[in-house]
Amino acid sequence: MNIYQQTLSLSERRRGFHIITNEVENALPEIRGMKAGICQVFIQHTSASLTINENADPTVRVDFEMFFNKTVRENDPDYEHDYEGSDDMPAHLKAALLGSSVTIPIRNGRLALGTWQGIYLCEHRNRGGQRRLIVTAWGV
Question: Membrane-crossing residues (predicted)?
């Protein structure tokens, strides 16, 4: 079994849901040589998250943003953690709901995502800055 790991720095993106599948695949070209394995992608931040969902229709990502903004509202007077602005605590809550990692099987040198699946960077801050991911793959 081989194990590969790489840090991937993503450029700053606007708030919303962004497909990053190609960037993840390009971060570890060693995946192309694997017959079978696992790839884990982990984000090293508490106000952004990762998930896997629809990769074709961009309105899905728009609806994700709308849903999370309705579900976890900004400017809630009950939030105590608001040092970095009105989007700060909601960003932490959204990240907790979605999670900090995704795990994808590797099959015949490719991430074994479904036909309509892509990896999303879920940016929950208005100005989240650059985001850092750890991409780890192991297999044969």
Answer: none
